[in-house]
């Protein structure tokens, strides 16, 4: 994407925001400028370089510091890259750039064979407990599997004892009752307990839990969260909690990273992020949660649209097409012009819509990402002057209505050229994740350093 | 359900429109090898035009079965009993052919998974054409198009996308198309079964707004099935809380959330993890096996305030001053202390038997 980086902050931000007070030895894992790009169609070269055939930037330059004993929440909607990031921390996805420092090694450089022994200390809990247990393996075999893989037991007796102990740890007591059962005999909550037993049996220090409660019935969710808190306290675990559920993240996490389309947009201590959300996306997410409180209601001015296609992310700040507070240099482009027209046409009477629709000849061409200059072809029987007048009228009308339409701020000039209308946009700038107050970092031009 | 002094449909305040749908003592039983599963066991409620009723409860309480049962969409081998009075016609026992005619123009259903309910080989326009051609034969081509575009516009789908295929839309847009497709025939009664479960936070909020606006803009009566109490508070006028095949509490949504009466409603609200959660709370155990449901009040094995009598006698439904109807002995005794005799000697003692419920019984 030909986006100019934010020049005044070209220096890489401090990878560990608020690290001033922390001693180095309480850092468990340090992630620096991590990238996970998935190549799409195209030649082998294009895939390796992550260019050419196109790449989904599932994780695009993430910096994180994971401290011992903390619960880090990776929060975002679908397509935000939170799951990919969580998996990459354990080496389950290959990073295409950046580093993950853990125990004096860089996980991104290790071969699968060298990673295996480390996985004893780094475990994962998946979202769907029904799918993460082998249906033809009884609980004894499934929960004890890590012991066999890592050769942690000398004989069957020790194996039995360790499995029974792990089951009792997670509340499946008496263990004998569950040892010979198969996953199909267990309820959803019991399965997730068995999955947790399997995750802790090899005595890990980090657990990446990917939506561990979202597939469970709501009456069980609180129980599993409580169990995870107990395990953390008793076994000195560190958690990475991947979720789209802000309410449970608020309760469960110490630090939060809000992700949008592969990037962290806001990061900091959970309490501060929830009490004073700064990024417009975080604010919107928090306002959109329906609460059972009859005196609180979801506001009407929700961000429009949905999470964009990660293969064709918006220019500049990925959130700008949905952001009510967007600035001129947030990355306006031709797709936003199309979205603006389509939004306007929603409110028009059918004949009015047909008239305005006929003005634009190449609406579908506006659906592709493109540079900051776009040519609009007039529809059949219309001249460029008609289209230009139409756009000017829209801008005029927009300047008089509230709430302000941020799109027009991003348009520098509109002119006629060779039978087409040329619309030029302000050059996009990528917001960088920068510390705003002591330990909270935000990637948003609204919080750019003064004098920018 | 044993009803005592409860004045049955006294809620019909003067001037209120006639209910579109009145369900009386509906039972939906599934046949299994172990005996009938009483998924819905004697449920009574009604919905008026333009009203949204939220149906909440844990999984396995019979919410979805109730929604399907009302529309006659139960699988083969299901026994249906009771009255589903839709505009004067009893839908229970109606011939499948007759029911099929009502579905679409009169009765609608919005599904949980918008991804799988649209035909990937048909354009959006063809979906609408088909629905309108089948059910509204009198319309001209132009009129059909206008009706479809109108419905889509109401859901925020631009007319320029009318001839696109389902895969060209995002999940939230597809769900909005599904809602438009259900509403384009202007049904009088719609069931929406977990319509936002598969959607993102912000998109879910958009859909909730659309559903909340329905009651203002259309005369459609809506039953919204969800496990998310926040959605009910946001989009529903009234709420019915289901437990083990029964409605244990129903009434004005604001009133029920502000002053939950039934212990199950209270526990459900307490165990919801919300932004204001500061401590974890949960209901021990899980909903009962509906082949052999507990005697007396079905919630008594999990109820923190159960009395001895609760384990033996089914609580009567009482209508409280606020219009809320609830089936709990505590409210019943408050309304009519003479009922205490029914509970027998020592029936009001706390049920010490709310024994330790272990993980073995967990959902």
Automatic annotation (TrEMBL), chain A:
The Swiss-Prot or TrEMBL record annotates one GO molecular function as: ATP binding
Basic and acidic residues bias: where?
Answer: 1-11
Keyword field:
ATP-binding, Nucleotide-binding, Transport
- SUPFAM superfamilies attached here? P-loop containing nucleoside triphosphate hydrolases (SSF52540)
Task: Report any Pfam family annotated for this entry.
Answer: oligo_HPY
Ranges of residues in domain ABC transporter: 40-286
Q: Which GO terms describe its biological process?
A: peptide transport; transmembrane transport
Region Disordered, as annotated, extends over: 1-25
Q: List the PANTHER family hit by this protein, alphabetically.
A: D,D-DIPEPTIDE TRANSPORT ATP-BINDING PROTEIN DDPF-RELATED, TRANSPORT ATP-BINDING PROTEIN
Family membership noted in the UniProt record:
Belongs to the ABC transporter superfamily.
What is the protein name stated in its UniProt record?
Peptide ABC transporter ATP-binding protein
Instruction: List the source organism.
Output: Wenjunlia vitaminophila
Automatic annotation (TrEMBL), chain B:
Which SMART domains is this protein grouped with?
Answer: AAA
Protein keywords: ATP-binding, Cell membrane, Membrane, Nucleotide-binding, Transport
Q: Does the keyword Cell membrane apply?
A: yes
Cite the Pfam families for this sequence.
ABC_tran, oligo_HPY
Membrane-protein topology: Peripheral membrane protein
Main localization is: membrane
Compartments annotated for it: namely: Cell membrane
**UniProt-listed InterPro entries:** AAA+_ATPase, ABC_Ni/Peptide_Import, ABC_transporter-like_ATP-bd, ABC_transporter-like_CS, Oligopep_ABC_C, P-loop_NTPase
Concerning CDD domains, the annotation shows: ABC_NikE_OppD_transporters (cd03257)
PROSITE patterns documented for this protein:
ABC_TRANSPORTER_1, ABC_TRANSPORTER_2
List cellular component terms (GO). plasma membrane
Q: Which GO terms describe its biological process?
A: peptide transport
Transmembrane spans: none
Asked if the Swiss-Prot or TrEMBL record annotates the protein with the keyword Phosphoprotein, the reply is no
GO terms (molecular function) for this protein are: ATP binding; ATP hydrolysis activity
Q: Which family does the UniProt entry place this protein in?
A: Belongs to the ABC transporter superfamily.
- Name listed for the protein in its UniProt record: Dipeptide/oligopeptide/nickel ABC transporter ATP-binding protein
